[in-house]
Q: What sequence folds into this?
């Protein structure tokens, strides 16, 4: 997060992190709220970015690889207002590992679509308030 200061501004918390799964919490507070007192669009983007990217970063660092990662595209479906601390869950660790292995073996850029679900457990339990699909692009550095 030191390389992208905007992420720190939203004060995200890692609730869970493994090679297969990540859950990131973005608090709904004065920094992250819109004028309706629900999570602001930009804060949603930060949560989705972190939930998908942190698994890839963890795998790259643990395997001591020289792989660049970037998001190629971003799709969002907003279902309800997020009027509380919002959890972003990504369960795509296996797909990220496969793309990482292919990128290292082939030297070619690999793209993988990651699905992230946002929920507000304090207000609506596991019912999604938003869904995201972001394409993670991985390539071994020359």
A:
């Amino acid at each position: 997060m030191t390389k992208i200061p905007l992420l720190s501004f939203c004060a995200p918390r890692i609730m869970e992190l493994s090679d297969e799964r990540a859950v990131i919490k973005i608090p709904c507070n004065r920094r992250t709220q819109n004028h309706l007192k629900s999570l602001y669009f930009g804060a949603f983007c930060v949560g989705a970015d972190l939930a998908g990217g942190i698994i890839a970063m963890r795998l790259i660092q643990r395997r001591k690889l020289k792989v660049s990662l970037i998001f190629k595209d971003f799709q969002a479906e907003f279902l309800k207002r997020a009027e509380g601390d919002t959890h972003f869950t990504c369960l795509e660790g296996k797909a990220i590992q496969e793309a990482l292995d292919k990128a290292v073996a082939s030297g070619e850029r690999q793209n993988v679509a990651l699905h992230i679900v946002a929920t507000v457990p304090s207000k609506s339990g596991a019912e999604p308030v938003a869904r995201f699909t972001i394409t993670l692009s991985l390539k071994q550095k020359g």
User: Anything to note?
Assistant: The mean pLDDT is 94. The chain is about 30% helix and 35% strand. The helical segments are 5-9, 41-62, 93-106, 121-124.
